[in-house]
Amino acid sequence: MQQQEDQQSRASKGIDRINLDLSSPTKVFVPQSDVDSCSSYREAVRLAWERRAQKGMTQSLLASFCDLYAPHVSDYLSKDVVDAKGGRRRELPAEKIDDFERVVGNRAVSQYLMRKAMLTIMEEVIAARTA
């Protein structure tokens, strides 16, 4: 019983040290060169996590602040697309991007998606002009 209370006390002190104020979120832009180096959505999510404002934030805290299923967060942030059993890893759900960016404190995922969408629009414009 005493050990459990000690663990909870230490955990709450760790959370206090992180000092997250999510009431007024600040999402900063990451350098475009970093976003350009991302070749996939997964890499953009990993970039956002690596550039998080609070380095002490754990994946468990991220899950609780973003209302994510905690066991899936390691899949979202994994470098490998395929797990050890050969199954495809989950990706951060699109409806959670805003919450994720608010918590990590940057817009890397949105920047990646905007860049990708712009390329798609440009490809469409080029195709329409050549048709």
Could you characterize what this model shows?
The model has no long low-confidence stretch (mean pLDDT 87). The chain is mainly α and 131 residues long. Helix 3 (41-50) runs antiparallel to helix 7 (108-130). The protein has one domain: 434 Repressor (Amino-terminal Domain) (Orthogonal Bundle), CATH 1.10.260. It is globular. It is built from 7 helices and no strands.
Radius of gyration: 18 Å
- The total strand number stands at 0
- Summing up helix and strand content along with how strands pair, one would put the structural category as mainly alpha
The averaged pLDDT comes out at 87
Can you tell me the number of structural domains? Answer: 1
* Assigned CATH architecture: Orthogonal Bundle
Judging from the principal axes of the Cα atoms, what is the shape? Answer: globular
Please name the CATH topology: 434 Repressor (Amino-terminal Domain)
Output the number of helix runs: 7
What's the story with the biggest beta sheet? Answer: none
Termini separation? 74 Å
Low-confidence stretches: none
Q: What is the level 1 CATH name?
A: Mainly Alpha
Q: Helix and strand string, N-terminal first? A: HHHHHHH
Query: Beta-strand level of the residues, as a percent range?
Result: under 5%
